[in-house]
Design brief:
Strand order of the largest sheet: 2-1-3-4-5
Number of helices: 17
Structural class: alpha/beta
Length: about 500
């Protein structure tokens, strides 16, 4: 009887069942030759790395790791993206994640050629539970093969690698920024980027770095552009004479002077080149490089959460302007000046005078309906405008101060904010459903629905993505939501 039981019974049946069912991905590890892998890789920039060669190298490293355990049947490879982006924010990794829930996805495990190509900071901690939930293994060279999601040793290793990856980025950033600051301040070196309007790039001899010079790279410097430098000098002269930015832009357009994007269309394919704008003139007047000094760090890159409600999406980069005390300025002139330093500083003082605002009683200009109001005649978003000490909104139907007025253009539309705010409770009553109004009555403990405050109505409009259109001809305020085609009209005379 004992011999009959040996090799049989419940234990033997369970082992035979695992083989019949094609097991082999259980806790005991993968069965050689049966796993189907998907390869994931990434290359950060196309300027300093060849994406094709980087992909091949990472793929070969991944192939060597899984050799004898299965084969790579698909791949996802992101190009030109930083590791700081979360998986959901990279197109290829996001596509990989989208396939996880599909039982017919055709693969059982993910293999990565290098840790830094896939994970940064705490990204592994965010992805591991998801991969484990769908029964997908993760293989990495740093783990010697399969990562054990339940192993404290593997978890510590992945955490350490994430911190190391983050430290590498931070250290590189500090080193590069320090070097650029020194090169600007001490050498006045041109550090790349498009030349400002009024300048063109000229050869400045062999590259200061001997290795780069050996590869044939040349240094560059800024030289005045004969066709555009006189325009820059004229703009500064007009500003110093007391003319407004709008008048300068309008004079340039009337004289037919090509705007910066039209003068250099090759670098401005994303712009129309239709004419000078107020921002184009202002940008020139605020650029300190026209003094002949090299200036760096006028802008900085801040890191912010993509979505504060979902920290797993990681961070995004946001460009912001630095104040002049944060600029790095060359200790000596680096290229020919188009305006003297004294004249540049004087031009900034002219642009700083922005109207008769008393210093003892500063006015806080706050527009409740900013971004919510459109013109009922032309459909353009109405501009916020201060009128007689009160907030108001206007639409000039496409006209700007940089262009001469068109006689056929409709008359400017104006409406004061208080005229519209008075009708917001009625607007809210027409937009909300009876069920919503009943809930408001219940919360207030009243027999009738209490009138909402303007702040509540505005919050409701923004939450429901409802826009308002003001029609001056009919003195009507019209609302339309993105979730519904319902349109209501309220008289706002």
């Amino acid at each position: 009887m004992a011999a009959a039981v040996a090799g049989g019974g419940l234990t033997g049946w369970a082992e035979r069942s695992a083989l019949r069912c094609g097991g082999g991905v259980a806790a005991g590890g993968p069965v050689p030759g049966r796993l189907r892998f998907v390869f994931y890789g990434r290359v950060s920039t196309e300027d300093w790395q060849d994406p094709a060669m980087s992909r091949v190298r990472q793929r070969e490293q991944a192939g060597a790791l899984v050799r004898g355990h299965g084969q790579i049947v698909a791949e996802f490879f992101d190009v030109g993206l930083t590791r700081k982006l979360a998986w959901a924010c990279r197109p290829q990794s996001a596509a990989l994640v989208a396939q996880l829930a599909d039982p017919d996805r055709g693969w059982d495990a993910v293999v990565v050629g290098e840790y830094e190509r896939a994970f940064y900071g705490s990204q592994y901690a965010a992805m591991a539970p998801l991969l484990e939930h769908y029964g997908v293994q993760l293989w990495m060279p740093e783990a010697g093969g399969r990562v054990d999601y339940h192993s404290e040793h593997d978890e510590k290793t992945m955490t350490m690698l994430g911190l190391s990856s983050k430290r590498e980025i931070t250290r590189t950033s500090i080193r590069v920024r320090t070097a650029m600051a020194v090169q600007t301040r001490e050498q006045g070196r041109y550090l790349g980027g498009r030349p400002p309007y009024g300048y063109r790039l000229a050869d400045a001899g062999p590259h200061p770095n001997k290795a780069h010079a050996a590869w044939g790279r040349r240094a560059r410097r800024l030289d005045p552009d004969p066709s555009t430098a006189p325009t820059v000098r004229w703009i500064f002269a007009q500003r110093l004479a007391g003319h407004s930015v709008a008048r300068i832009a309008r004079a340039l357009n009337e004289a037919g002077v090509p705007c910066p994007s039209a003068a250099d269309p090759g670098r401005n394919t994303h712009r129309t080149g239709a004419g000078w704008t107020l921002s184009a003139v202002t940008t020139i007047l605020e650029n300190p490089r026209y003094t002949g000094r090299q200036v760096w760090n006028r802008q900085r890159t801040d890191s912010e959460l993509v979505d504060p409600a979902n920290v797993t999406l990681g961070h995004k980069s946001v460009q912001r302007w630095n104040l002049p005390d944060g600029w790095v300025i060359s200790s000596r002139p680096a290229h020919p000046a188009l305006v003297s330093e004294d004249d540049f500083i004087a031009a900034q003082d002219v642009s700083a005078a922005r109207g008769p605002v008393p210093h003892d009683k500063p006015v806080l200009r706050r527009y409740l309906l900013a971004g919510l109001l459109a013109c009922g005649l032309c459909g353009r978003r109405m501009e916020s405008a201060w009128s007689k000490g009160k907030p108001a909104y206007r639409c000039r139907h496409g006209r700007t101060s940089a262009m001469a007025p068109d006689p056929a253009r409709p008359k400017n539309a104006y409406i004061r904010e208080d005229k519209l705010v008075a009708h917001l409770p009625a607007l809210h009553l027409l937009l909300t459903t009876p069920a919503t109004r009943a809930r408001r009555r219940t919360r207030a403990g009243a027999d009738v629905t209490p009138a909402p405050s303007p702040a509540e109505v505005i919050g409701y409009l923004r939450e429901q993505e409802i826009t308002l259109a003001w029609n001056p001809a009919s003195a009507a305020l019209q609302a339309r939501g993105t979730q519904t085609a319902k349109t209501i009209t309220v008289k706002a005379s």
